[in-house]
Write a structure and sequence with these properties.
Length: 333
């Protein structure tokens, strides 16, 4: 089969379209998926530039997100059938036999969900990682409740625009940060109640004005660096601060967060895959199943900003690393 693979870590130029062996079903729980599309995420660019998470030999196929049609079933698979359209987040971190920048993927059936009927394969492939990240961060980590307030950084980004929608579905008031009027319009389109232009406004001050000096119940940092530390004064006493990046202690410390009794949560939706936690991966598949229903009910949308052929993987990685994209990018296969 054809696949985009990396034979060494480096710039986008290390991504090459090559022939690779088609993966084979090796356990009773697996399915063979003929991929129709693959999502592109910042983690793909980090693996490409820094190296994979595994000692398995290169070349490695990247891409955690995929969508396609089941072509074959393992002997114990009962919940899916040949011909089912599915989507999932699994593989693509350097483990041999995995990755979705390819024509085929073998995936554990317990970790996949049926594709929403009203989404294209490209839109479905763009959704899983950001859905799981936003759902776990706001729902599982921060335990966001109806009537609460939440600050979501980067509201026009891949995770941000999904997080806005989930927060609104769960009954929260949403404040978000953006850099441009176009991104502000996108954030409002997906439900943001108030938009803060972080380049022109002091975000904690804006939040205090919007909350009458109280601060938000939850802040969700999707950017990292100084943004994590600048979120602390925006959160109310006994509030929650969730980040998807590792805090940089050269830029700040927990003194103010401790004084405010904040609950600090770290969100990495890749943990179940990296640790082989089957129960947690099944939980993630259940999240995707619930999201499928929300998509089909018209209550959830994915902003697919650009679709590229698989052969243009280099361009997609360059766009991600420039940091100016809105929504998601996906490959058609």
């Amino acid at each position: 089969m054809q696949a985009i693979a990396m034979a060494t870590a480096g710039t986008p130029d290390v991504l090459q379209l090559i022939e690779m062996p088609q993966p084979q079903i090796t356990t009773p729980h697996q399915v063979l998926v003929k991929l129709q599309a693959a999502g592109v995420n910042p983690i793909d660019t980090k693996v490409r530039s820094r190296g994979t998470f595994y000692d398995d030999p290169l070349p490695a196929i990247l891409g955690c997100d995929g969508a396609g049609v089941i072509e074959a079933l393992g002997s114990d698979v009962e919940t899916f059938h040949v011909g089912d359209a599915v989507y999932f987040c699994d593989g693509g971190l350097g483990k041999a036999g995995t990755g979705n920048y390819a024509e085929y993927a073998v995936v554990d059936a317990r970790f996949i969900a049926k594709k929403p009927d009203n989404l294209s394969f490209a839109a479905a492939a763009a959704a899983p990682l950001v859905l799981l990240t936003a759902w776990e961060a706001l729902g599982d980590r921060a335990r966001l409740q109806a009537g609460q307030t939440v600050l979501i950084h980067g509201g026009a980004g891949g995770v941000g625009h999904v997080a806005i929608q989930l927060a609104k579905l769960w009954g929260a008031t949403v404040f978000t940060t953006v850099s441009t009027p176009d991104k502000a319009e996108l954030a409002r389109q997906y439900g943001a109640d108030e938009v803060i232009f972080y380049r022109d406004q002091d975000v904690p001050e804006a939040i205090h004005n919007l909350t009458e000096g109280v601060g938000v119940d939850v802040a969700f940092d999707t950017i990292g660096g100084r943004i994590f530390w600048e979120s602390v004064p925006a959160v109310k006493t006994y509030g929650d601060l969730v980040t998807i990046l590792e805090p940089d202690f050269q830029l700040g410390n927990f003194q103010q967060a401790r004084l405010k009794n904040l609950r600090i949560s770290l969100e990495l939706m890749l943990t179940p895959m990296l640790t082989g936690d089957v129960a947690a991966q099944m939980h993630q598949a259940e999240i995707l199943r619930q999201c499928s229903e929300l998509f089909e009910q018209g209550k959830l949308n994915i902003h697919l900003s650009q679709t590229l052929p698989l052969a243009e993987a280099k361009k997609a990685h360059q766009l991600i690393e420039q940091g100016s994209t809105t929504g998601k990018i996906a490959f058609t296969i």
